[in-house]
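call fold(seq) -> C-alpha cells
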Amino acid sequence: IRCWSNIPFITVPLSRTHGKSFAHRSELKHAKRIVVKLGSAVVTRGDECGLALGRLASIVEQVSMLQNQGREMMIVTSGAVAFGKQRLRHEILLSQSVRQALHSGQSQLKDMAIPVLEARACAAAGQSGLMALYEAMFTQYSICAAQILVTNLDFHDEQKRRNLNGTLHELLRMNIVPIINTNDAVVPPPEPNSDLQGVNVISVKDNDSLAARLAVEMKTDLLIVLSDVEGLFDSPPGSDDAKLIDIFYPGDQQSVTFGTKSRVGMGGMEAKVKAALWALQGGTSVVIANGTHPKISGHVITDIVEGKKVGTFFSEVKPAGPTVEQQGEMARAGGRTLAALQPEQRAEIIYRLADLLTDQREEILLANKKDLEEAENKGRLALPLLKRLSLSTSKLNSLAIGLRQIAASSQDSVGRVIRRTRIAKDLDLEQVTVPIGVLLVIFESRPDCLPQVSALAIASGNGLLLKGGKEAAHSNQILHHLTQEALSIHGVKDAVQLVNTREEVEDLCRLDKLIDLIIPRGSSQLVRNIQKAAKGIPVMGHSEGICHVYVDMDASVEKVTRIIRDSKCEYPAACNALETLLIHRDLLRTPLFDQIIDMLRVEQVKIHAGPKFASYLTFSPSEVKSLRTEYGDLECCIEVVDSVQEAVEHIHKYGSSHTDVIITENEKTAEFFLQHVDSACVFWNASTRFSDGYRFGLGAEVGISTSRIHARGPVGIEGLLTTKWLLRGDNHVVSDFSEHGSMKYLHESLPLPQRNMN
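ret:
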C-alpha cells in the first residue's frame, strides 16, 4: 500500500503486476500505451481566461499522429475551469451591461466589477465546451474521443474502480482516445488560491495524481507530464545556477530545491515529482517537460516518444559513470587546467601517448580484432567502413610518428602573441592565441581518429568530448584509456572524455552551454545530420568530399596515370579520394586517354559517364545519376570539358570545395586553375590524397574544413585556437581621449616577441 497524505486517493492497494519501466530514453520509442497529462498552464491562455487554442491544436495533432501509429493514447486534461470562466465572465458582462443600459441609458463597462467566480460553477460551464473542442480537433484526424469525469471518491470504491478500468480498456480497444478530467463541478470546496486571479482554483495536483494513478492502473508504458517549465531543475528555475536535470532517479529528492508554483494551479513541481515517482514505482516511465514553449511545443510529445533529450526523464536505473553533462563540465575544467600547463608539459603528455601506442600495440590490435569480428558477424558495415575500422601495426606506427610531430610543433601554440599595438603612452594591447574551449568530436568507424584528435586537443589546450561509433567500441575504449594514462602524468585526466552513455548525436548537438565547437568525422550523411541538429554550436567540417582531377591538354603522359591511380585507388574510402575525372576534349581518342581507361580497368574501377562524355561514345558506361556524387569506393565519374575555364566552372557547380587537382605542363594554365578554383585545397601535378594534416606537416588533423571562416582545409593545432585581447594600462580612461582631453591615440605597431622554433 502506498499512501501520501497530500494525494488522498492514492491510498488503496495496487493489484497491478507488470514489467519494469524503461531504463533509457532510447527505449521510449517502444512505448505502446501512453498517458499525456496537460497542466492548466499548458491548456490555458496567458490571461488565464480561455484556452490556448493553437497550443491545444498542436498537442491534438501529435497525439493523433501517435494514435495512428498504432499506439494507445490517453489524455488527462485541465482547462474546464478556465474555459468556463471565459464563458461566465462574458455572460456576467452582458447581463450587467443590459441592466446598466436600462438604468442609466448608457453602458459603462469599464466601471463594472467582475465578481469572484466559484471554481465549480466555472467547471460546470466549461466542461462541455472543452470536450466539444477536443472532439472537433480529433475529428480532423479521423479519431474519436470520449470524455470521462472522475472524482477522488471514485477511487475509494472498488466497484467504481473496476468499472473505470473496464471502460478505459474498452475505449482503447475501439481505437478511441479517452479524455479524462476530475469532475471539478462536484468536488469538495477548495481553499482560495491567489495564483489564479478571480477564481478559487481546483488543485492541479489532483490531475498530476490522477494521471499517475491512471497510468499505473492501466499498466501504461509512458506518462508525459506537460507543464510550463522545461522539466525538473536542481534549484528554482530562473535562478543563476539552475540546471535542468536530464535524468531523475528515486532518492534524488534531497538534492533538489523546489521553487514557486506555476501561474495557475496548486500542484507545483513537488507534487509532479511525487506523482512521477509513484508512477515509476508502479512500472510506468515518466517524462516531465514544457508544453508551452513556442519553439518546441509543436513536437514535444513526439520528440519524447522518439527518445530525444526533452525535459526530465525519470529512471530507476542509475548509470555507473557520469552523465554527458557532467563529462562536459569535467572536460571544461580539465581543459582550463591543461591550457594553464607549460608548453613542455603538454608536449610531454603527447610524447607519452605516442609511446603508449607502440608499447601497448598488442592490446590495441586485440581490441580492434574484436570490433572487426563483431562488425563482420553482424554484417552491418560496408567494405570501405571496415577498412576504416581496421587498425594495423603500420597504422599505429604512423599514428605515433604523427603525434610526435604534434608534440614538437605545439611548443608555441597557446599564448602566442600575434599582434602588439601601443594604443597610447603606457597603454599596450596584445592579441594572443587561446583554446576554443570544449570540442565535441563525433567519429565513426575510425578508431585511429581518437589519439589524433586527443593529441591536437591537448596541444591546443582544449577540453574534449569524444563520441565514437558502436562498431569501434572496444578499440575506442582502450585508446581512451591510454590517452587518460598519458594525461595523468600532469593531473589532467578529465580533459579528454569518451561519451559511453546512450546519448543520441542529436541530443549532444543541443548542449550549447557545454560545447563550443563540433567536429564530425565520418560520412557525408553524418556531417549533414550534425549540421542540421546543431543548436547554436558551430560545426567545423565538410559534408562531402567530391574531389576532381582535371587532365589538361598539355598534361604529361608519365604523370597522368600515376596521379589518377593514387588519387582514386590508394584509399578510395577517404574523403580526399578522386570522385570525378575531368578530361580535356582534345585528349579523347588519344593514346593518353586509352592509357587512363586501361589503368582504371586494371584497378577494377567502375566508370560512370558524365552527360557530355556519354555523347561522344557509341557504347558508353552507365551514365552518372548525379555529377555531385561521392562514391567512397572503386568508382568514379568521367566528364569532358572544352577548356580550363570550363573545368573551373564544373568544379564550382558540382564540387564540394574540398580538394581539386590539375595535371598539366603549362604553367600559365596551372596558375589560372590554382587562382580561380575556390576550394580548400587546390593542387598542381599532385595527388588529391596529399590533402591531409599529417602530409601537410601538421602532425595530424581533426578533419578537413570546407568552411570559409576560421579554419579551412586540413585543420591542425592552429585551427583549434582562437584569440583574446590583453590590454595593459595605468589609470587610463576613455574620457582622457576626448576632444578636450589630455591624451592622444598613437596606434603604433610593436614588434612581436621572438617565437620559440625548437
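The chain has a mean pLDDT of 85.
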